[in-house]
Amino acid sequence: MVMLIDTSPRLRAPAEQVSQPWQALAQYLASHGHALALDPAPRQFSGGLANLNYLLDIDGREAVLRRPPMGTLPPGAYDMGREFGILQRLSAGFDLVPQGIHLCEDASVMGAPFQIIEYRRGFAVGAQLPESLCGVAEVGQRLANALIGVLVRLHRVDPAALGLDTLGRPEGFLARSVAGWRKRAHLATQGTETPLIEELGAWLERHLVPDGPATLLHNDMKLDNILFDGDTLAPTAVLDWDQGTRGDGLFDLATTLSYWTEPDDPPALHALRQMPTANGGFPSREWAAQTYARAMGRDLSDFRFYRVLAMYKLAVIFYQLHDRYRRGATNDARYAAFGTLADGLLDAAHLVALGRLF
Question: What is the pTM for the complete model shown?
Fold first, then answer.
């Protein structure tokens, strides 16, 4: 079956863009042998809640400039150099990874470090299926197969073969994750009442499991971080590698499933609007977990721990985003409701901990 889907880039209207010092960037790139076209000016991609991404014309070809969000940032977050290093190495052995073109760690050029990477054309699937796919037989199953298939392919990559065997610290990964996200939770919710943060944090400490086999992790694998070919639905790229590391692959799977909504889920999971898995014939989270486990030879006996940790992490991320709104670091109206959303995600994590939600 051939399906023609528009793969033109989704861009913000000029009046809605976060402005950048394009002339300064052009001068900087010229000093490094690159020509940046400024007529028309670069355009910001729509979507996304963190890093800012812009479509450039550099050296006569399309590329993407990626920089951190504006304002004060959490320590260690949005590390452009680290992500660029992952792209440079991983793209040599995993064909879905765009290549890095240029890294600038001098914040004086644009107010923050930035990177320029290869642009790949394709369409992403966000909260809703593209209209042209609605009603197509088995489209949900095909996209689910592709998503889990990409995760399996990534986890089968040999990090040492690509010079990524020193990325992250797999030993103690899960224990550090629990401790780190508990700390971030308290920092992001200072001055608010969120009792489940402590209760679920303590649950995670009590139910901590040994680290499983270390793999390369994306840490945010979902449909809108994958680009698909407009005719075949084959994946063409995996985006957003800023959280890439090595660790237990079941945590990567659990992160994916934290976005995977089912029809009977609590309202907060539907309010996430990350993937259209509650409609369109998508299979269940349990199907996804079992499919991955069979492909990777993993035992899911302790998977509840991973699910709770991933849901806890997701809630904390939304608390962090809401905290930026509370502090005036952003005036994006979407952020105003993120505190309530995070509360609902903690409630859902509690249901997982109790065994009432897969």
Answer: 0.91
